[in-house]
Amino acid sequence: MSDLFPAPTDLPQGVFRTGDTKEAEWRVWAPHADSLSLVLWRDGRERVLPMQDAGDGYFICREQKVEDGLRYAYRFPAGVTRPDPASRWQPDGIHAPSAVFFPKSDGFTESWPGVSLRELVIYELHVGTFTTAGTFDAIIPRLEQLVDLGVTAIELLPVAQFPGERNWGYDGVHLFAVQNSYGGPQGLVRLIEAAHRVGLGVILDVVYNHLGPEGNYIGEFGPYYSNCYRTPWGNALNYDGPDSGPVRRFVIDNAVSWVRDFGFDGLRLDAIQTIYDLSAKHLLAELQESVQAVAREQHRPVHVIGETNQNDSRLIQSPERGGYGLDGIWADDLHHSIHALLTGEKDSYYVDFGQAEHIAKIFNDSLAFDGQYSRYRRSRRGNRVDMIDCEKFVVCIQNHDQVGNRALGDRLSTLVSEEQLRLAAALMLVSPFTPLLFMGEEYGETAPFPFFCSYLDASINRAVRRGRLDDIKDSRIRRSGKIPIPAAQETFESAKLNWNWDDNRSRKNLRLLYQELLKARKSWPVLREHLRPTAKIIQSPTPDGPAAKMLQLTYERAEGFVVLANLSASSGQLPTEFSAYAQLLSTSSEVEVVAIDSSMLRPFELRVLTKDTAVR
Predict the structure, then answer these.
(1) 3 state SS for 244-260
(2) Is the pLDDT assigned to residue 113 strictly greater than 50?
(3) Contacts of 190 (CB under 8 A, 6+ apart)
(4) With 0-12 CB in 10 A as exposed, 13-18 as middle and 19+ as buried, what is 67?
(5) Phi, psi for 439 (deg, rounded to 5)
(6) Is position 556 within any domain?
(7) Is 592's pLDDT higher than 50?
(8) Residue 108 has pLDDT above 70, yes or no
(9) Cβ(173)–Cβ(163) under 8 Å?
(10) Backbone angles phi, psi at 230, to 5 degrees
(11) Which pLDDT belongs to residue 478?
């Protein structure tokens, strides 16, 4: 069969140990080069070794006495020297030689059972702004606080090596290398081991749709980029064109490496609608198969979750049903619906949202748009997903994109009232979906999260600033002079968390609410089992003014359990059929200090009721 269908050479790239414990082999795919040399730097001296042509564009070379930290690069026939496309460590930055790093993957997952999909409560954080120091090691002392909050996994924004020391992470150019300013691969290993010790999973945000614009040399090695597609951020990767096989392997090996060699418990795939692939077997399906093979070997769950704006059930349907088999997708409709309702904003994609009925539909069907016409997109969007388990949909009320892509990077806590903020949190946490918190939201952090970068090329910094300004449609904001400059140090510094809630009653109580609701997700069967409710909007009489709109959630498998959320700015009457129910929880911040008529729901109050006292 091999003679009938001869396959090209297929090798993983990078530096690998051979049978000899001190010997290493370098492998690189460079079909654009007629020959290639390996350059080593030892004790300040350069050594050049010719690489062996292994066929089909691959070059290999072996060397004795290789240890972590050895600097190396590849030299083309014309004399140009480039870092390794599969470098695991760039201690001196994106343009400098690579450094050898051999992952110590033996044993770090043996006693770690992982976190099941149903148990996931994700906490999204940016390494550089989560703490003052902005390193992996600086995160470790905060892990116990996250466990105490009720989080079960942290999700790191991308850590692949990017230009400079300040970036969201989506401009990485060395997919296998861990950002040097964060602490490099050694620091990442320490963080993951520490997280596992306290019972936290760790998920990594990875970018497989494009590479950043500076220090991006892989196109010099081979046809990594597509001639057919382009993303909003740069050239798309070649997943279905000529010679796409090694490109696909490069990316899949990267995904596998994060799980196998570092111990990550999941991957969040960035903007998968721009991973263009018309192959009979989509890259996403192949990547998921490879990651799950490692998960089975390590006897723990690993979750591959896609970020998408398509609302497409194929992504999470099983391969047997024609799907890609991903474990979950980001489902932004709940965020958009809550945000538009509470803020009244109608610009951009918020034009499609803002009605209470949108929220009810999401609780019923997981998505607001599952085939309906979108005014913003001027086309139909999505397909039905209501038959798919609720935990496969990751929802939020804030995340890095929804905050950071605003002109000023302002958080929800600065846009709505305290009661509205508490309502938003509760709607997310009583939902049957998998919740994602954005760092600091649990105590109402007000520090912005604007876009920031620190390209070494000043012209790119200027271009980024122009592009961000062009995206701002509000002329008042454009003229205000308040728009952050992405490359400015102060823009980055402004995004660092304050970590302060004990001396502020509102912040302290908000964190307690998150803590109480996250505890409830583990103890209340309705929430623990991700039961889908029957949701409807009811009109509730008010003492004066128009009727209040309330969201009512009831459950077929838990008849005595009900959630009522007043989505209006006026008080509303509690439906009489629930008047004898006991209160499990209220989001009203005034419950402890003033007498409240229990027959009325205050403006923007969510209340959980039960007639079964055993639930408590």
Answers:
(1) CHHHHHHHHHHHHHHHH
(2) yes
(3) 136, 137, 140, 183
(4) exposed
(5) -45, 125
(6) yes
(7) no
(8) no
(9) yes
(10) -145, 145
(11) 66
Would you state the pLDDT for residue 107? 46
Alpha-helical runs (H) found in 356-488: 356-365, 400-404, 418-429, 458-470, 475-479
**Which CATH number do you get for residue 610?**
2.60.40
Q: DSSP of 261-289, one letter per residue?
A: HH--SEEEETTGGG----SSS-HHHHHHH
Residue 161 — φ and ψ, nearest 5°?
Answer: -55, 125
Domains held by the chain: number:
1
Q: In this predicted structure, what is the pLDDT of residue 543?
A: 74
- Is 604 inside any structural domain? yes
Distance, CA of 295 to chain centre:
20
Q: Are strands 606-610 and 558-566 parallel, antiparallel or unpaired?
A: antiparallel
Span 451-488, pLDDT tens digits: 999 999 999 999 999 988 888 777 667 666 689 999 99
Residues forming the active site: 270, 307
Rounded to whole angstroms, the Cα distance separating 441 from 403 reads: 11
Q: What is the pLDDT of residue 20?
A: 74
Residue 458, domain member (yes or no): no
Please give the pLDDT value at position 125.
Answer: 99
Burial class (CB in 10 A: 0-12, 13-18, 19+), 142: middle
> CA-to-CA distance for 240 and 228, rounded, in angstroms?
10
Q: What's the whole-number mean pLDDT along residues 129-141?
A: 99
Q: Rounded to an integer, what distance in angstroms lies between the CA atom of residue 466 and that of residue 564?
A: 46
Q: Please state the pTM of the whole predicted model.
A: 0.96
- Give the helix, strand, coil percentages of the chain, each rounded to 5: 30, 20, 45
Does 164 reside within a domain?
no
Range(s) of the domain holding residue 573: 533-615
What the block records as the tokens of 274 is 């721009």
pLDDT score, position 388: 97
Task: Check if the beta carbon of residue 566 is closer than 8 Å to that of residue 513.
Answer: no
CA dist list (Å): 539 to 253, 356, 416: 54, 11, 23
- CA nearest neighbour of 367 among 440, 315, 302, 301: 315
- Pairwise CA distance, residues 275 & 285, whole Å: 12
